[in-house]
Amino acid sequence: MTVVVNYDMPIDPNGKPDFETYLHRIGRTGRFGKNGIAVNFIDGQRSMNIMKKIQEHFGKKISLLETNDVEELEKLS
User: Which residue, among 17, 25, 5, 4, has the nearest Cα to 51 in the 3D structure?
Assistant: First the structure.
């Protein structure tokens, strides 16, 4: 399993969401037919807004991962 961690949501030089960089990053999770997971660290309203715009752009829901639910985390591995 491949794990991609976005410590910072990708933005362009103007501070807008960088959709192509995000796609490139998370695309690594499915290389060569393998399964994977992408994790985005959201540390405030700004990064939450960027994540929401990326979610809208791609038309895919980005699910919240409850880190205090160990059973749910184990299902991902």
Answer: 17
**Total-model pTM:** 0.80
| Cα(2)–Cα(62) distance, integer angstroms | 17
Backbone φ, ψ for residue 46 (5° rounding): -60, -50
Q: Exposed e or buried b for every residue in 43-75, given b needs 16+ CB within 10 A?
A: eeeebeebbeebeeeeeeeeeeeeeeeeeeeee
DSSP 11-23: B-TTSSB-HHHHH
Q: pLDDT tens-digit profile of 17-76?
A: 999 999 999 887 777 777 888 899 999 999 999 999 999 999 999 988 777 777 776 776
